[in-house]
Structure formats: structure tokens, C-alpha cells
Amino acid sequence: MRMLGFRVQYYRGIIDAGWLDARDITVVVGKNESGKTTLLKALWKFHPADERGYDIEREWPRARRRERDDAQPVATVRFAFTEDERAELQAADPAACWLTGVEISRSYRGDYHYRFLPLETEYQPEARRVIDAITAALKQRPGDVMGEMKQGWGALMESARMRALEYNRPFTVHEMAQVFRGPAAGPMPLQIASSDDGDGVKPLARKVVELVHGWLPTFIYMDDYQIFRGSAQLDQVKSRRDAGRLTDEDGTFLKLLALAGLDLDAEVRKAQQPDRERRMMDLNDAAQTLTEKMAPRWTQKRCAIQFQADGQHFVTFVRDQETGVMVPLEDRSRGFQWFFSFDMNFMYETGECFRNAVLLLDEPGLHLHAAAQRDLLARFREYAQRNQLVYTTNLPFMLDYARPETIYIAEECGQDGTRFHRDWARGDHAARLTLQAALGLSLSQELFTDEYTLIVEDVADYWLLAAFSTLLRAAGREALDERLVITPAGGISTMALIGPLLASEHRRVAMLRNGEEGEAAAHPWMVDERFVLTVGQALGADAPCSLEDVFPPAYYAEQVQAAYGLNGEWTQAGPAISLAPVTVAAAQRLEEIGASPYDRRRVARQILQHIACTPLHGLPLDILDSAARLVTAINTIVRGWDTG
């Protein structure tokens, strides 16, 4: 199953977070104490690797005591079934052939409530229309041909209708109390009951729910404090475990032992025995076992694990295979410890399979260098091929600005608690400031990290260029050269400063400008004039153009109307005046109808969202052709750098 979206309600500072779309990677930004961690922890307890549940006494929102109800859903998650899963459900019950997904919520009580997708409001009218059409057609057939079928049709269709409705009742799945499930132990035993009082659940319905519950991904939460500790007094850890007083450090240490194939009780006994040589050989074997598991995941530096023990004192060393230097795990850099901790937690809680998990990461990479943060983001993309990630961050290099549809803002809304949305223009000042600061830091750092740079005027140009390149690559056509870094300058005047600054750093710099070629702001000392390209030149147009002119005028007008929530006002103002660029025509039309002033970033965000949810064949073909001309012109400059 793949998560489609999620919603959190009545959990700490969140009253109703609203529905958040879940993609392969989902990012949440926001100021401190805005509710980002709260969102992750509520999701974590939806289906964690252990028996952990919600605590209504500690986690119910403050000042809402009279509303307290242990039946209140906390996290609700929607999943889509794969084709293989749909086939398995249909094999369990042929009437389940229409299922496409499921909406599952978990309450403070610990119950899971199931509603299968599509919901009744989505499928019932269509089902009635089909049934009524077939019934009407049967009445027109000759009696000697269809008599028998006509006799049983009414009862048959009523039975089918009721059968479909039965499958859309919410089901309640009660977990067996105090059942511990380890990383590879399989699904918990279930007790299933219909949400309708007095109704039993038919055996096939029970099988369907049991199958779906067994497919639930494991939700794994990790924050900066879950650093693995490799050193411990074995007997003291055992005493705390036996007394039920394990610390977080004890927990991470026990995970380390488990992944290395070591048992705490056995190690405590060995510490009391005189055969030190045998113990040393056993520890070396365990360290080698763990090293082989971790080696494929370490790409920055080749390291090996080594265990040493003196009586009850157990120490984990990390040996640099190039220099041979051994350093205790706790003495390695915080960045190394974070990488080690991340991989170890992920390995442990997915049963070493590294798949079918939802990773919930709270401020990952805080102790990593900017370059290492980019490496971590690349690793996230790798993990997202078989898992899904939701993480919070305010780090500039942990945001992928080529995919703004994946970024949510956490915003406090007073008595209504924290809400999460993607409308950057609507967010309060503090929420926007966090994103703007991250963007500014990221862009300023990028200026000095890559050899090939394309400077554009505005961040909207960056978004659109990245989207064009993605579309062309998906269509099997030439995309932007991957070595080229697109840098928004924030205006023509800023471009005049950035150009010579980068040139002095021996960078290859080109500029893509909107508007007219001979505009006064294009100072000749910015960069070599051979590397200054206007959008009009690239598109082969006579009139001034902007990147928005890649889109057909009718398509762009539709996206402007969608961005501003307009209906008939746009056309009631009369025929649009033909102007180039299309941004000028849009601004004039908005002014004519008395709408909010034109904001090209607002429209660009709308276009990106539309492109993200529209199949390639559903977009106008002119977009690809125009985008191809633009990208070819840019890549021609890059190829000139390669040969020159």
C-alpha cells in the first residue's frame, strides 16, 4: 500500500491539521514550536514498530477537557492498493473487486477504523446509474429470450447494492492488549467488529480487513536525540531492563546488539567467565556481521565496526579503513553519529528489509555540513523508491525547490491550533520568513559551489525552468544539462552584481533574461555578451517574451483564473487584448476586473501544482515544443563551454 494523504486531529497543539497530500517525500517547514514535531509523533503512533499507543491523559489538547473522548481519531491515513494487492483482495472476496484503497484512522483507545475507497458518496450514484440502465434495457428485450434473467434481476441487483454498501461500513479493528511485535514478527493479532451496533462481520469481510491490516507500513520516528550509544555497562543495562526502567540510550544500545547478533543476557554471562579469547573472537565475528550490513550504506568514508569488552564494560569502536585509526562511536563527529543512527534505526525497525516503511524524521541533518546535507537529501530520494518520507526542516540544503508541491508550512492559528498548508502567500509573516530565509541561504551558498551557472531574474523563473526540464525528460526529450545550476538573482540589478562576482571565481556564467534584449539594465560588464540569452531569442519571437510565453495563451489564462479563484469575471470583461508577454495581458485583465494585483509567482505555483497532477498527455503539446526550443538554446551555451 502507498500512503496518499494523512490528517491529524486533537493531538497536543493540533485540533485539526487538515489533509496533507503524501508523496514519496513530504517536507514541513515552520518556526519553532509551530507543531511540526507534534505532527510527526501523531503519525508515528498510528502504526509504530512496537505496541506504543496514544496517551489521552498527556496528549489530549489543553483547555479542551470537556471534549475529551477516547474514541476520537488521532491520525487518519489514506492508502492506495497496488494492482497485486487488489488481485489478492478479490481472491479473498470477489465482491472486493471495486476496492482501490482504504482510509484508516486510529483513536486514543487504540482502535483502527477502516473505510474502503472509493467512499459511498463517490461510488453509489454511479452504481445506481449502471444498475438502472441495465434494468431499463432488460425491459425492452423479448420475453422468450430474457424471461429468466428478468425474473431474478430485481432481487439480484438489490443484493448487489446492499453488498457494496456493506463493504463501505467503517470497520473497527481492536488490537489485542499488551502484544509486543518485534521488527520481523508480522502483524498483530486482531479482533474485528462492524461499526454498526449489533451487526456481525461476515467471514470474507474479516479476511479483507485482516489482509489490509497486514499490509500497513511501519511508521518510524527519529529525532536528533536518538543517537546510538556504543558503550555501556552490560550488567547495569540488564538491571534496568529487568526493572522496566530502560533509558533511551539503553534502547539504542540494545538495537545495536540485536543487529550484530548479540544477546544482552549472554554477554552479561560471558563477562563473568574466564575465557577471554573465545569472547574476543565472538565479538569480532559480531562486529564483522554488523560492518557487512552497514558497508553498502556508507559512501563518504570506508569504516568498520569493532567491539571490545573488559568485563561488563562494552565499547563500540569505528575504525577508519584508510588510516586504521579507531575512535569510540561516541567520539565521532555528530554528523557521523547521525548518519550511523539513522541507518541503524531504519535497519532495525524494518527488519533489515529497508522497505514498506513511512520514515518520520524530525530536523534531520542538523549536525551535517551543507555538502553532507545535500548527500542526505540524495539518500532520502533513494530510500523513497521503496518507502515514503515525511520530515521537518528549516535547513536550506534540505529543501528541494524543484518540487515546491512537496513543501508544507506549519502555521499556528490561535484557538484552532496548528494548520498545515502550501499557500506560501497566505502564511503568516513568521511562517513565510522561515521559508524565505532558508531559500536565501541556499541560493547564496549555491553561487560558489558549481562550475556552470545560469542566472535568472526571479525564483518563478527557476521554478518554471525546472518544471520544463522535468517535463522534457519525462517525454524522452532533451532536458537541461544536469551540471547547470539555476540561480535566481532577485531582479536585473542583482544580476549585475552576481555576474562579475561569479566570473571572478572562475565560474562559467550565463544569463537568461525576460524582456527586451537592449534593455538599459543589461550592463556589458556583467558577463560575456555571448552568454546573455533572452527568452524571446530562445523562442524565436519578435516581441519581448517571458518564460510564461512557453505556455499557450489560453492555457496560461486558465491557470491565472485558477490561481485567483475566478469564474465568469474573466470573460465578462470582454475579449483579451493581445499582448506579449502573456504576463502583461494577465496583469491588465486582472486590473480590468478589479481582482488582486498580478503576482507571477502565485500563478507559477498554480502551474506547478497543475503540472504535478496532470498526465503528460493531458498538457498542451505546444508546451513541450516551446520548452524544447528554450532548453536547446541554453544547452547550446553549455556545450560551447565544454568545447571552448
Task: Give a verbal description of the structure.
The chain is of the alpha/beta class and 644 residues long. Helix content is 42%, strand content 18%. The protein contains 21 helices and 22 strands. Strands 1, 2, 3, 5, 6, 7, 8 and 9 form an 8-stranded antiparallel sheet that branches. It has a 6-stranded mixed sheet with strand order 10-15-16-4-17-18, sandwiched between helices. The longest helix is centred in the first third of the chain and has 25 residues, at 143-167. It is globular and about 90 Å long. Residues 120-125, 175-189, 196-201 and 517-522 have low confidence and may be disordered.
Structural features:
six-stranded mixed β-sheet; 21 helices; alpha/beta; 644 residues
Topology of this structure?
Layout: E1 2-11, E2 14-16, E3 20-21, E4 25-29, H1 36-44, H2 56-59, E5 73-80, H3 83-92, E6 101-107, E7 112-117, H4 120-139, H5 143-167, E8 171-175, E9 190-194, H6 203-215, E10 218-222, E11 232-233, H7 234-242, H8 248-259, H9 264-271, H10 276-294, E12 303-310, E13 313-320, E14 326-328, H11 334-349, E15 357-362, H12 370-383, E16 388-392, E17 407-412, E18 418-421, H13 429-446, E19 452-456, H14 459-474, E20 484-488, H15 492-503, E21 508-513, E22 532-534, H16 535-539, H17 553-564, H18 569-572, H19 582-592, H20 600-612, H21 621-643
Parallel strand pairs: 4-16, 4-17, 10-15, 15-16, 19-20, 19-21, 21-22
Antiparallel strand pairs: 1-2, 1-3, 1-5, 5-6, 6-7, 7-8, 8-9, 11-13, 12-13, 13-14, 17-18
Helix pairs in contact: 4-5, 7-9, 8-11, 14-20, 14-21, 17-20
